[in-house]
Amino acid sequence: MVTRLTGMNSAATARTRTPTSRRRAEAGRDPHDKSIQDLVGELSTRSDVFRQLWGAHDVRSHGAGVKRFHHPVVGDLTLAYEELAITADPSSVLIIYTAEPGSPTAERLRLLASCAATQHPEVAITVEGHVLIVEVIRHRYRVDSQDAKATVIQTLRDKLSRNPGKKLALAYLDDFEGKFWAETDERVREITSTLTQRIGGEATVGAGVPSLADASMSTSAGAEKSESSRVELTQRYQRIINEIQLARLNKMMDVLDEDILNSPQDFTYIIIDDLDKDWVDAKLTNELIMALFKTVHDLKRVRNLKVLVALRSNIFKHLEFDAIGGGQEEKFRSLVLPMNWTREQLTNVMDERIKIAGRRQLAEVETVSAILPHQNVRRGSALDYLLDRTLLRPRDFIAFVRECLTQSEGKSQISWDAIHRAEITYSENRLLALRDEWKSNYPGIDRVFETFRHADGRMTREDMQQRLDDCILLLAEDGFTGAGWLTPLGNAVLDGVKEQSWAKRYGPILRMLYDIGFLGISIGTRRVPVFSTDDPNALRYDRQVEAVDGFVVARAYHSALEVQTAGQRTGSNAPASSS
């Protein structure tokens, strides 16, 4: 910041005048403050503008105004401020910031307050557990009105009050005082508010223990005290959560098992999906998802409840399991069930969708094959052609068939020409979808995809090495945003140690492109390539990488990247075979 003062224009000088004048006022209150003297000396030697402004002896104090901040999680904030002098301590000042009601800043502060609930894993676990408990009770008792809500809560109170062993669960219900059924955002605020009140309450009876209000006080001499206060506050926060809130939450889970879902007839499934949408930032994503995993694991004690969490592999792969305590990773990974689709399963799914669509249009269509071109020796199977250009995921197959139907509007059959036209749009959309799926893990990944434009349909090791070199050279290009992940993947190549094996040098980046489904591999005379959906461990070891002699870009991206297949190189208009 000091170096930016030099050579500032008139507008910048005007912006600098106010803080300089305020520093003058502070220096006047304590002219012997060594820290201010040292700061003024340093700035005067390094900035002509500051030296001139300081020499002007302009003293100014602003008791109110507007300040703009940029928060790394919620973005830009515009806040009105007012300074309140503390007569007992002239060196201190209390600054109050407020946001205009209904403004974007007010909404962002509300969001930030919700995010604050995840500063400790235990808070996030409390929130996740409460949300799931409420939804189970809502489903079990078919709560659909205010009367039903009141009846269910009272019934639970009566039942729990008769069992002394469930006093903690009763206290849990009492905690929310009518807000038990609130929407998720309000529940987060309520839980955070309850914890804050307990922490603040302890502060009033603990000698020398800071209160939450201390965080609003700013003094030049109180930095160490402030840091000590934050540490004590954090420790108290965590203890209250562990000893009170989590204990009550755990007892409520026992109530679910023993009193609410106590019969096999009440067996309940909860499916949690869309965890890849609308997150504020990556750190928040990790903490809340890990808290969800911990909650789901704890709910295993409820015998007639099964919670299924659907999570994309790119998110799961980069989760930091230490966020909820060490030694947890193996416990959670053992619960994972990878979902892989076969060609037969995808075809069955599409057949059902086609059948339903046919009924709506009063057409007797039972299978997707019935509306595709007939198989022949020259062109092969249209169904295989479509499936070959997916990553064997329902959304890919559905998107391709939908585009084929769009290109065949007004006709009862899909032709090969319609399939080829549809492939142009489908391939471009799939490449964009792959970028969007992985851009949070690998910023700038689209630039890596572009290095494979006009690649051969089947690449040798030499071809692949040239493409991978081009990928790594992106580090030297202006505007490339992926240095953070590409540098470690390309270090072995950049170091230029030729004695290392090919697998040591190119294996790291090759594995990444294989894992995300962009590249496939083949060995020897085997013509059918293997992708990560077929064998996720095919490149785990260097010896496996060394054995690979053929590489392919997934067919889903051939059209978008203008990959040169054998038929295109010989000038044939026939589509590439499905092998």
What is the mean pLDDT? 77
The SS-based structural class is: alpha+beta
Instruction: Calculate Rg over CA atoms.
Output: 31 Å
Which spans of ≥5 residues are poorly predicted at pLDDT below 50? 1-17, 203-227, 569-579
- Estimate the strand proportion: 5-15%
Number of helices: 23
Fraction of helical residues: 40-55%
Oligomer: single chain
Concise summary:
The protein has 579 residues and is α+β, with helices and mostly antiparallel strands. Helix content is 53%, strand content 8%.
Structural description of this entry:
It is built from 23 helices and eight strands. With about 575 residues, it is α+β, with helices and mostly antiparallel strands. The chain is extended, with a radius of gyration of 31 Å.
Task: Provide the descriptors you would attach to this structure in a database record.
disordered C terminus; four-stranded antiparallel β-sheet; 8 strands; alpha+beta
Helix and strand arrangement:
Elements: H1 10-29, H2 34-46, H3 48-55, E1 64-71, E2 75-85, E3 92-98, H4 104-116, H5 121-140, H6 146-161, H7 167-176, H8 184-203, E4 217-219, H9 223-260, E5 268-272, H10 282-298, E6 305-309, H11 313-317, H12 329-333, H13 343-360, H14 382-388, H15 394-407, H16 416-438, H17 445-450, H18 461-472, H19 483-494, H20 502-515, E7 519-522, H21 542-547, E8 550-553, H22 558-561, H23 566-569
Parallel strand pairs: 5-6
Antiparallel strand pairs: 1-2, 2-3, 3-4, 7-8
Helix pairs in contact: 1-3, 2-3, 5-8, 5-9, 5-10, 6-7, 7-9, 8-9, 15-16, 19-20
